[in-house]
Amino acid sequence: PAPPPAARIAYCPEEFQFGDLRLPSGPGPHPVIVVIHGGFWRAKYDLEHIGHVCAALTEQGFATWNLEFHRIGHELGAWPGTLLDVGHGADYVRQLAATYNLDLGRVISLGHSAGGHLALWLAARSRLAAHDPLYLADPLPLIGAVALGGVCDVKECYKLNLSNGVAREFLGGSPEEVPQRYADASPMELLPLGIPQVLIHGTADPNVPFSIAQGYYEKAIGLGDPVRLVPLPDAEHFEVIDTRSAEWPVVVQEVKQLFS
Q1: Which of 40, 131, 211, 240 is most exposed, with minimal Cβ within 10 Å?
Q2: Nearest to residue 121, comparing CAs of 156, 149, 95, 84?
Q3: What is the dihedral of CA 141, 47, 50, 113, to 10 degrees?
Q4: What is the enclosing helix (H) or strand (E) of 45?
């Protein structure tokens, strides 16, 4: 088990709408990382497995807000609940800021796998129209976003049939059947995001192929976005969230650079 958080706090009233807050030493104000776990948006994977990442980043001087949310298999999960939960959870940092002395001007999102998708989507959601089902007014501004082995392109996730067709389960159909959902939920479709993005991805990742990150990077650069692609030679899917791995210091370095 990871070291326990300073507090487990509900951001909305339903069962899976909470987060684990960890705070660094010192008085603050603390820079904040909104952390989103992976698991292909499925209910059987929860926030516990990314707790070590949060604890390690907190040791580096960052407050971490590790979000739980409704997932595929929960009544309120998948489209649109998963995305709305993550949006509400990120925005709740404003409510936490006064009590825990958080710096609202220095907040980034960071996620692994499907959490990488959600971390980029948090940076993209300000582009959604007011009538959109995923729209939340006045989203929390971010100064950067980090995707670790991230599912940056949900259409490509569908095309490659990742995790036994999980994109169809997540969004309720194919890109042809529900095109607007893919347009609104996929960071690839919402480019340019207009803030720094870092894609850290193993070149031998069997779960989320490196080509997904590469395709996203090429489109983002072409649109003028400040994005970095950090290939991890021969790394697979979980090295980026293993704080004992040879790749972990790269993650720490890139996070620190976003805050510098």
Answers
A1: 131
A2: 84
A3: -70
A4: none
3-state secondary structure of 29: coil
pLDDT in the model for residue 123: 98
pLDDT tens profile 124-155: 999 999 999 999 999 999 999 999 999 999 99
Q: State which amino acid sits at residue 236.
A: E
- Alpha helix locations (H) across 130-177? 154-159, 166-171
pLDDT number for residue 201: 98
Quick one: tokens of 146? 């980090």
Sheet of 144-148: strand order equals 7-10, 18-22, 63-67, 30-36, 102-112, 144-148, 197-202, 227-232
User: What is the C-alpha separation between 180 and 113, in angstroms, rounded?
Assistant: 22
| Tokens encoding 237 | 């899917």
Q: Are strands 18-22 and 227-232 parallel, antiparallel or unpaired?
A: unpaired
What's the per-residue H, E or C state across 54-89? HHHHHHCCCEEEEECCCCECECCCCCCHHHHHHHHH
Residue type at position 36: I
Contact assessment for residue 152 and residue 185, using Cβ atoms and an 8 Å cutoff: no
Instruction: Judge whether 18 and 11 are in contact, CB under 8 Å.
Output: yes
**Which tokens go with 46?**
């929860």
**Rounded CA separation 134/25 (Å):** 36
> What is the spatial distance between Cα 34 and Cα 69, in angstroms, rounded to a whole number?
13
Q: Residues 111, 119: contact at Cβ < 8 Å?
A: yes
- Name the amino acid, one letter, at 72: I
Q: Which residues contact 47 (CB under 8 A, 6 or more apart)?
A: 19, 20, 37, 66, 67, 68
